[in-house]
Amino acid sequence: MHALSIRPARREDLADLIAWNAAMAVETEGKTLDREVLARGIAAVFDEPRRGFYLVAERDGKAQGGLLVTYEWSDWRNGDFWWIQSVYVIPAARRGGVFRALYAEVERRARAAGAVGLRLYVETGNTRAQAIYARLGMRRCHYLMYERALA
User: Fold this and answer.
1) DSSP E strands: which ranges in the chain?
2) Which residues contact 134 (CB under 8 A, 6 or more apart)?
3) Which of 9, 81, 83, 97 could disulfide-pair with 13, CB 3.0 to 4.6 Å?
4) Which tens digits make up the pLDDT trace of 1-31?
């Protein structure tokens, strides 16, 4: 098996990013996303880098998965938390170190940029993902998440 390479996503990756986000929503939440809305949402990240960036993992020139990083300003810490979102690894590449490599690159970039920490959220029943995050040094925080949809 050849080494993974991690690179910033490009607009040419849009079809993969759409497919991965749609698949992740079905797998983790049983939700079917509107692909047109999803395409506009992903393109908006490329249009305005202040929103974040996507990374793609490749092996032998073939995309294996990716993730999105967004930013949250912390006035308490005078710095940005980097949020890891929209994580997806194609089924054939799972348990092959793809997320580990993506995570390592996010951490490297975050440290270089002076971020104050990394955060992500995970479905409460997704114990497999929770175990992976713990092995990478992340810990469960003491906050619960609430939301209210406005649209």
Assistant:
1) 4-8, 53-59, 62-74, 79-89, 117-120
2) 140
3) 9
4) 688 999 999 999 999 999 999 999 999 889 9
> Distance (Å, rounded) from C-alpha 125 to C-alpha 102?
23
Superfamily of domain 4-135: Gcn5-related N-acetyltransferase (GNAT) (3.40.630.30)
- Copy the structure tokens of residue 71: 């930013």
- What is the pTM for the complete model shown? 0.92
Using H for helix, E for strand and C for coil, what is the string for 6-37?
A: EEECCHHHHHHHHHHHHHHHHHHHCCCCCHHH
* pLDDT tens per residue, range 40-49: 999 999 999 9
